[in-house]
Amino acid sequence: MTIRKNFDHLNLPLADALGVVGEWWTPLVVVSIAGGSHRFEEIQNGLTIARNILTDRLTTLVDNEVVEKRQYSSKPKRYEYHLTKKGEAVLPAFELLAAWGAKWVTPHKNR
């Protein structure tokens, strides 16, 4: 059995959206950037995410124009990450998901 790595075979807007922002860690990265963590180390330390995973998630977000990279140092090259309008537009969906989690998941975690 082959495990699918994307939803490209589906013609559904939700599947398309999840292909961009539905990977493990991605919503937390977006919310972290929205909250003011713009540098790689800030995002990594705030989430305690592995560097390779964060690099992969940021690359996907930049490639899909959810996040933009802005160089702030040339030697060595360093970048900040900022949400685009497209990235800002997904925040209400994450806020709704967080509210759902607060109501239906978090209270039942330690049962």
TrEMBL record:
> GO molecular function terms here?
DNA binding
Q: Which organism is it from?
A: freshwater metagenome
Q: Which residues form a coiled coil?
A: none
Tell me where in this chain the HTH hxlR-type domain is found.
Answer: 12-109
**Protein's recorded name:** Unannotated protein
- Give the classification, highest ranks: unclassified sequences, metagenomes, ecological metagenomes
What the entry lists under PANTHER family is as follows: TRANSCRIPTIONAL REGULATOR, MARR FAMILY, TRANSCRIPTIONAL REGULATORY PROTEIN
InterPro entries in UniProt: HTH_HxlR, WH-like_DNA-bd_sf, WH_DNA-bd_sf
Q: Which UniProt keywords apply?
A: DNA-binding, Transcription, Transcription regulation
